Structure formats: C-alpha cells, structure tokens
# Entry
Amino acid sequence: MSILSASIRKLMGRSLLAMLGGYGLAAMFAACLPLWLPRISAISRADAALIGMMLSFLIFALWILFAYAARSGTKALMLHLLLSTPLLLSLMFLEAPAP
# Structure
C-alpha cells in the first residue's frame, strides 16, 4: 500500500507542477514579452502582446511535456524556479514603455 501511495504522491506532484507551474510560467512570459519587444524592435505594444499570448500556449504545452519527462520532480521544480525568477524580476522592475 505504501508503494502505491508514494507513486500517487509523485504523480500528483508532477501534475500540479505541470498544470500550475506551466500556467504561471506561460502567464509571466506573456506579461513580460510586451515589455521587452517594444524596447528592442519596432513592434507595437499591441502586436507584442499578441505575440506573447500566442507563444505562451507553446510554452505551456512544452512545460507540461517537460514536467513529466524530467528524471525527477525536484529537477523539474528547480528548472521552473530558474526560468521563472528572471521573468518575475523583469515584471517587478521594468515599466511599460510610453505609447
């Protein structure tokens, strides 16, 4: 019974990391891209927001695949923290460019 319980806990942990972590990572990326793109290219803020939203679906899907393909849930969690920290910092410190 305890082996089944441990495997279910691991599966539930990866599922939560895949769903909630993937959503958070994709949402942060979709929010950061409209801040970055107008600064480095001639793309308007509206186009940058649209590009960010479209790419966030790809990031979400890829993160779900990676969360289950990683060798351990801890490695997937560490990568999630490594990827989300710069996004969170840029959301905190970058201001939206003037229209």
Observations:
- The two ends are 61 Å apart (CA to CA).
